[in-house]
Structure formats: structure tokens, C-alpha cells
Amino acid sequence: MPAISFQSVCKTYAASRGAKSPATPLKALDDVSFDIEEGEFFGLLGPNGAGKTTLISVLAGLSRATSGRVLVHGSDVQADYAKARRLLGVVPQELVFDPFFNVREALRIQSGYFGIKNNDAWIDELLESLGLADKANANMRQLSGGMKRRVLVAQALVHKPPVIVLDEPTAGVDVELRQTLWQFVAKLNKQGHTVLLTTHYLEEAEALCSRIAMLRTGQVLALASTSELLRSASSNVLRFKIDGELPPALATEARVTGRIVQLPAHGALEIERYLAAVREAGLKVEDVEIRKADLEDVFLEVMATEKGKKWQMAI
Ligand SMILES: Nc1ncnc2c1ncn2[C@@H]1O[C@H](COP(=O)(O)OP(=O)(O)O)[C@@H](O)[C@H]1O
Ligand SMILES: [Mg+2]
Description:
Pfam families: ABC_tran. By secondary structure, this protein is α/β, with parallel strands linked by helices.
């Protein structure tokens, strides 16, 4: 039985956010179907507005799908809400917290929601593992954003859920927290917990996730193992620095970050063509290298596919 099963999930918001009247409905999820197996470390990737948080809200039972359904270990998140909810530990994207309690109190209250008494041994372990041990008695409003994020993670885990869902847990947090968090989540995954993660950091997803779905405007465009995705990249990447503006013919194909230019390179002839074009434009080229495509290259390639055309890949 899959840990999570998304079955033809559609979600239409009556009015798109920030839309002026007349209200236009917005299809945030468009027939999303895939399963996540028990014990997987699964990545859900997509640009802002792709529908990642909406999918997680539907999974967590916080938002109702317009059609389709979601099962957690076979329990329907709507019809069998309490059972499904107990199986899930959800770390929300938004920092929501109750400012009146200290960290330990917040975690005890959360344990209470699940009917768990005397949870202090596990709460201590959570505090320790997340680098919060010295903050146990600190009031929630005194904590920095990064520390609040750690408490949200601890809160999601008080009932030792078999399925852990993290919605952009590392957006805007420091490197140290990212390391602590990943070590801890990877350990839980090794112990058998299923992990569903959304992130903007593609190198994080590449390092951690064994399988990945890529979402754009509510549709799954790619779904495969991380290694299959990396293998599917159509090319290597030619990377160099320039001291001026790239000729327009190359600019449309290139990924440009400041002075760094990266171009998909299918072979020696193409590399020669690129470098000749840059030379003819009178630009000085430095630090030329060729590297293997990474997940970010694959992501950009997938996102550039035509709408409706699924990424050709064995699932
Ligand atoms: N409560 C809402 N009402 C109307 N539109 C919404 C609401 N929540 C999200 N949306 C819209 O749905 C789309 C998907 O949003 P979201 O799920 O937050 O994407 P992501 O998490 O991938 O950035 C966006 O266009 C967003 O503006
Ligand atoms: Mg989101």
C-alpha cells in the first residue's frame, strides 16, 4: 500500500489570489495523480505558484479537493480525516505559531492534540536533534525566524508520524539549520519514515530525494527517479565567463547569472559554434569548462516544455 496516493486531484479556487473583479476561477491543481511508496524520500518541485502548497493542504486535509482524492496509508484524508491526520506530520510553509507559549509548552500542547501524555522523553530528543535544547523555555515570540522554523518541525513530529511532509522548510534559513534539519530528516527516513519535501533548492533535492515530481501550473510534467532525471538531460553544459553582452542568438538558449553563461552542449561542434559566436561578438571568454547537467538544468528543460506535453520518461 502506498504511503500517499494522489488520485486525479483537481483544485479550483473560485477567485485567483489578488484578481480584480469579475472574479476569475483559478485551476491550481489539474488532475494530479501519483503514489509515494513507504520509506521513500520524495521531492515535489516546481516554480512559485505551481500548486505545491495547495497539494500539501489537500493532503493535510486543510483544503478540500474540487475532485479526486488523497489516501494516506489507505485512509482518505476527507472521509477518514482523524486517521489520516495522525499518520502525517506536516511542516507548513508559513511560520504560524502561538505567541503565548514557550517551546516546551507548545510541543506538549501539540502532543495533547493527538492524545499523547508524558511525551517529554521524545520532546527532549526532538529539541536536542533540532538544536533547540537551550530554547526549551524561551517564549515563541522571542525566537528568530530560523528557530521558529525548527519548532515547527518539532511540532510536526511530536506524534512520531510515519509520513513527514515539509513545505519549503529551508526557504530563507541559514546554512546551519539546513544541515541540522537534513541530518535529522535523513535519519528519520533511514528509520523508515516516508518523507515528502518541496524545495526551491534543487541541489538539496538532488542530494536527498530518490524520486522527484515536477509540477507546473497544477500539472505534473515529470515524475521519475532522481538518477533517471539526471540521465535524461539531453546534454552536458558549457560554462564560461564573459565581459559583455551575449549575442542575441545565444542569449535565447543560455542560462545567464551575472558574467557566467551556461549553454547546453550536445557535442564538440556545438561548443565550437558557441565559442566562435562569442569571439565574433568581440567578447573576451574566461574560465571555460564543460560539466555534466545537474538537476537544475533538467528542471529548466522540463519547465520549458510545451504545455500538455509530458516529459518522455519511464515512470
Ligand atoms: N486561497 C487561495 N485563493 C486563491 N488562489 C490561491 C489560494 N491559494 C493559492 N492560490 C493560487 O493557486 C496557485 C498555486 O499556489 P500554491 O499552491 O501556493 O503554489 P506553490 O506552493 O507551488 O508556490 C497560485 O496561482 C496561487 O496564487
Ligand atoms: Mg508554496
